[in-house]
Amino acid sequence: MTAVRTAGEDVGAAANGGGAVGSHPVGRRRKRRLTSVTPWLFLAPALLLFVVFKYVPMAEGVRLSLFQVRPFLGDLFVGLDNYVRILGDDRFQAAIGRTFLLAAGQTLGSMLIGFALALLLEGHARSLWFVRSAVFLPVVAATAVIGEIWRLLYYPAPEGFVNTVLSFVGLGPVAFLDSPDSALWSVMAVGIWKGAPYDMVLILAGLAGIDRQQYEAAEIDGASTWHRIRYVTLPALRPVVTILLTLAAIRGLRTFTEVYVLTGGGPAGSTDVWMTRVFSVAFERNELGIASAGSVLLFLITFALTVTVQLYRRRKA
C-alpha cells in the first residue's frame, strides 16, 4: 500500500510538475511581450508631442499649399497654382539662386575648416578635450544669439571689432552688412563659422575608426603627410564625407535665422534667400498658400537630395 501510495504521489507530483513546465512558455511569452511594449510606453509621450508639433504642421502646410488662404471667408482650392506663381516670381527666382550659392559656399567652407580642425585636434591628450569643447560651442549656442554677436562684430563704424582690426592693418573699414556686394559673403562666413565645429566632430569620429597600421605602413614606405592624407585618410573618410555633404547642404538650404538677424534680407534684397522670401510672403504679404508652396518645394528638394545620396552610398557599398 505504501509503495502504491508513493507511486501515486509520484505520479501526481509528476503531473503537477508537467503542468508547471507546460505553463512556462506562456509566462515567457507574456514577459517577452511586456518587455517589447514597455520601451514604447515610455517613448509614447515624446512621440505624441513629436507628431503633433512636427508632422501635423507639415501636413497642414501641404494642404495650405493647394489653397488660397482667405481668413474669415474660407479657403479656396487652387490646385498647383500657388507653385506656378511662386516659381514664376522674379524675386523668388533670385532668392533661389542666392540660396544655392550660400549653401554651396557654406558646405564647402565648413567641411574644409572642419577637416582641418579635426586633423589638428585628433588625439587622446587631455588638453585636447578642452579645446574641442571650446571649438564646439558655436554649435550649441542659439543661432539668434550668434547672429546678434556677429552683427555687433560687423558693426560698420570704425569702432566695430572687425573693422578695428582691419583698420589696424590698413584694410578697413568695410561695410560688411550694409553693402550689396559684401552682405551675402558676410552671412556665409557666419554660417561657415557655426557649421565647421559640427563637421569637425563627425570627421573626428571617422578618423578614430581608421586603422593606425595603415599610417604606419605608409610612413615606412616614405609617404609624406600630404600623401598619407590623400591616400589613407580621405578614402577611409568617404562614408563620413558623404553624410556630411548631405547634412551641410541641407543646413545651407534652410538658412534663415542668421540672415534674418544680420540683414533681414537686405540691403536691396542682396541676402534675400529661400526661407526669408517664404517668411516675407507669409507674414508681410499675408499669402500663406504661396508661402506654404515655397516650403513644400524646399522640403522636396532636401528629400530628393537625401534619397540621391543614400542611393549613391548603397551603390558604392
UniProtKB/TrEMBL annotation:
Keywords: Cell membrane, Membrane, Transmembrane, Transmembrane helix, Transport. It is found in: Cell membrane. The keyword Transport applies. One of its GO terms (cellular component) is plasma membrane. It comes from the Bacteria. Its main location: membrane. It holds the Pfam family BPD_transp_1. It is a multi-pass membrane protein. The chain crosses the membrane at residues 37-56, 100-121, 133-153, 183-210, 231-250, 288-312. Residues 96-309 form the ABC transmembrane type-1 domain. The keyword Hydrolase does not apply. GO terms for biological process: transmembrane transport. PANTHER family: ABC TRANSPORTER PERMEASE PROTEIN, INNER MEMBRANE ABC TRANSPORTER PERMEASE PROTEIN YCJO. Belongs to the binding-protein-dependent transport system permease family. This is Carbohydrate ABC transporter membrane protein 1 (CUT1 family). It comes from Saccharothrix variisporea. The lineage of its organism: Bacteria, Bacillati, Actinomycetota, Actinomycetes, Pseudonocardiales.
